């Protein structure tokens, strides 16, 4: 038996926009089902909002998203935004999304796209533990860690 985990992000009216953005970054297929597709009257306030959405790519990237009904506008800010101070990460966010690849160039390409209108927490570049690492909070308020897998050696 095997299982997989997929991050499921909750938005307040902009899940479709977020899914389209993530598809533009990572590629793959996007699937979106609106509340109206599930029987909510088409003239209801949330009929066009996402009840279930997903981006799935052959490269292994997968994320799901949802619009919380009746919750329009930006999500509440975490108690403290993610920042780096004195070499440590401080955050009020309950999670980060991690993307790990095999090459600096591949992951750097994802970084460049995700960084559009993002807040850079730690610039993408060489790190002591990996060939490259970076952290940012995207324009939807999701904090991402991107890094390149370090070669392991058996001692």
Describe this structure as you would to a colleague:
With 155 residues, the chain is mainly beta. It has 2 domains: 61 residues, 2,3-Dihydroxybiphenyl 1,2-Dioxygenase, domain 1 (Roll), CATH 3.10.180; 66 residues, 2-Layer Sandwich (Signal recognition particle alu RNA binding heterodimer, srp9/1). It contains 2 helices and 10 strands; from the N terminus they run βαββββββαβββ. The strands form 3 sheets. A 4-stranded mixed sheet has the order 1-4-3-2, with helices on one face. Strands 7-10-9-8 form a 4-stranded mixed sheet, with helices on one face. Strand 5 and strand 6 form a beta hairpin. Helix 1 packs antiparallel against helix 2. The longest helix has 12 residues. The relative contact order is 0.17. The model has no long low-confidence stretch (mean pLDDT 90).
Secondary-structure topology with pairs:
Layout: E1 7-11, H1 15-26, E2 29-34, E3 50-56, E4 62-67, E5 83-85, E6 88-90, E7 97-101, H2 104-114, E8 119-127, E9 130-137, E10 143-148
Parallel strand pairs: 1-4, 7-10
Antiparallel strand pairs: 2-3, 3-4, 5-6, 8-9, 9-10
Helix pairs in contact: 1-2
CATH fold-level topology of the largest domain: Signal recognition particle alu RNA binding heterodimer, srp9/1
Structurally, the number of domains stands at 2
The biggest sheet amounts to:
4 strands, mixed
Give the strand order, joined by hyphens, for the main sheet.
1-4-3-2
Specify the overall morphology.
globular
Amount of beta strand = 35-45%
Q: Structural class of the helix and strand makeup?
A: mainly beta
| CATH class label of the largest domain | Alpha Beta
Spatial extent as radius of gyration: 17 Å
CATH second-level architecture of the largest domain: 2-Layer Sandwich
The overall strand count is 10
Mean pLDDT figure: 90
Measured as a percent range, the helix fraction is 10-25%
Order of SSEs: EHEEEEEEHEEE
Oligomerization: single chain
Compute the number of helices: 2
Which spans have pLDDT < 50 for at least 5 consecutive residues? Answer: none
- End-to-end span in angstroms? 32 Å
């Amino acid at each position: 038996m095997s299982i997989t985990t997929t991050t499921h992000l909750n938005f307040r009216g902009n899940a479709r926009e977020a899914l389209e953005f993530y598809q533009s970054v990572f590629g793959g297929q996007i699937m979106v089902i609106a509340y109206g597709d599930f029987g909510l009257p088409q003239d209801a306030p949330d009929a066009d909002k996402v009840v279930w959405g997903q981006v799935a790519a052959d490269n292994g990237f997968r994320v799901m998203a949802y619009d919380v009904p009746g919750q329009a506008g930006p999500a509440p800010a975490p108690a403290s935004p993610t920042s780096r101070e004195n070499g440590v990460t401080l955050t009020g966010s309950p999670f980060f999304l991690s993307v790990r690849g095999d090459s600096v160039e591949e992951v750097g390409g994802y970084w460049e796209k995700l960084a559009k209108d993002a807040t850079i927490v730690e610039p993408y570049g060489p790190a002591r533990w990996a060939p490259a690492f970076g952290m940012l909070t995207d324009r939807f308020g999701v904090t991402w860690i991107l890094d390149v897998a370090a070669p392991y050696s058996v001692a």
